[in-house]
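OP here, attaching both records as promised.
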Amino acid sequence: MSSLVSRVATGRVVAGGPMTEMSVPGAPARLTDHALLVAVLALGLFGAVMIASASMPVAEKIYGTPFYFVIRQLIFLGLGCIAGVVTFRIPLTVWERYGPHLIIISLCFLTLVLIPGIGKEVNGAQRWIDLGVFTVQVSETVKLFVIVYLAGYLVRRGYLVQTTFGGFLRPLALICIASTLLLLEPDFGAAVVIVATSIIMILVAGVRFSQFLAIVGVLGAVASMLILSSPYRLARFMSFTEPFAPEQVYGSGYQLSQSLIAIGTGGLGGVGFGSSVQKLDYLPEPHTDFLFAVLSEELGLIGAVCLILLYSFIVWRCFRLAKSADEQGNRFAGFLALGIGVWIGLQSFINMGVNLGLLPTKGITLPLMSYGGSSAVVFIITFSLLLRIESDLRQRASLALRANQGMPAGGSS
């Protein structure tokens, strides 16, 4: 039996032989990646604090209480933690088995949200399903389900993806259907994140580079046509190049110009927590899509860099888990961790890029920072999946080390 080298979060151990199943029968999952857990908790609490600061003027004006949004966000975070605990106890094999079902559920939800009377329209976009007490943004759930489905597909059909054009196109067809439904809402930002994450996962799976370049070229052409064919998207695309132009500063470039003023005002150390001026009815959506601008104004470059480093650590942790899972022979966990890392990194980059004027304005949240119940719950579930992956990896490596040393699995170390 060939030995297997596995790098886990605490170091290197040598496995005694190939393993095809990550979960250990009868062994409960144990939380061990404290660094990732602390980073996620810090991100969630940091987001709640910034939402409290950014949303006070808006909440006071609309609802008569300055803490309306932050209280709801804390409730959503609590619900997310409950869902996260349940998610952590579900074996990864269950997610892999039901991946195809999840993509079908995603398509059904995306269809339902477009039906009048079921989908709720806000600011010209029909992206939510109204459940009475709260609304659900379907696209947030779809992002996770697509990654789970694609991770399983790349394990089951990895050889076909690498050797045939049909194996490469088959998952993209379903993902393009989901993206088309998202564009009908419209939610261009979510569609971009889903397609880009899927393409990167397929590239890592070993698809032919010529096929990769071809599909990227086609998708680039389609994206250009979508922008040029929609006056609304074209106006947003053009405004980010000259947001302070006289014809745009009070029109399509208004959000970006106010965001840049906020970021520029913050300087190195910021104007102080709670002291933002732009959140006082100048900057639209200060607690959602443009929370990063308020953070940069109040905490300055130092606060912005700290947030970027926090996201960078989480993304690095995802990629490290993906590498460890692949080395232990569990490709599903590896692709899942990879997809989650790409998703978090890409969505964070797009949101910050929009705030900084590096990308055209689009409605996309900052993961676990921006206000939003659906986003908060889904991201906590996502991070719970990462913790489950790390727990299984460490548990399996520990058993392999004991077997390699000739010790019984239930013995003491």
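Record two, same layout:
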Amino acid sequence: MIHLDTLSRTVDQRIRFVHQLPIEVRKIPLAELLEGYVYQEEVWHAFRTQRGVLYGIYQEHKLSHREIALIELLLLDYEESANRKLERWQQELIDAIHLPIEAYSERTKIEDLDAIHVPFAFPIVTIGLRPKDRQQASHFINEIKGIIASFAEGFDLTYHVVVEPTFVVCIIEWTEESKTLELSAETIASSIVDGMLREAFLEVRAVYAQEILDFNALVQTVRRMLFLALAAEGFQMEQPVIAIDGLGIHELLYSALPTLKKQYGLRVLPEEATKLLGVELEQTVMTFVENDLNMSETARQLYLHRNSLLYRIERIKEVTGYDIRRFSDAATVWAALLFHREGFR
């Protein structure tokens, strides 16, 4: 087991670990604890490890979604990585994944870069893959390798994988012959996602990058891929395939401190307002913004008459005080809803 004091220092001592739960918390289903359960103003969070379940305790809104994801990754991976022999290039990528997760991290300094031998030639296409259901990690690992191998074999592609329990990096050599196959990083990522759903019944999110030219760029790309996958996960975004170019304003919102998210989200939309909005009106706001405040397209996607959509917009104004036909009001409510969805983490 990874030394827990070391892991706690990774997040500035904002979490402590225990192996037993208080009697009052033991009756809570494990599924709820795996997402974090609030008890006496603290969050009790269950983490799966190679040896079972470990419990972390932290103050509510003191750890971000990406910090929790990093803890999950480290706890799941530690014993497995200690027992496997990795080439240095693989270890460098895994070490990069285990660093604090950021949208645009500083360029990583790699010692003796020229001495690192990689078994592939640049340029390469890279795809990062993460299961939408983190509790399916073992099933994900077992299936993803076969899906990637099958796809690569079908197009005679040379590939390599770096495997973490909840994040897999697929590297494909991008030769002149590859370019004649009418493939792209996006189509490869989409095919792997579709294959996992069709063959393994697992929903997977993929982040792709086209034509990486050197190892330093690969390390930076892999770190960014994990950030983008986590941002999409935190905001419950539907898109299964994401370009390395990113998620636009979502990245900035996801990077905000949990305390700021809570203060903003509850000021714009107090708990009572979110209850009054309900699922139907929340979906209306999100779809309206996604369609650039276009009434006709929003009504079409929601299967509504235009007058019914207008009624919903007026109802949203009554509940929130914001008129989402105005860009600034729509953006304000939309951001607050994203923070509520994420649980202010």
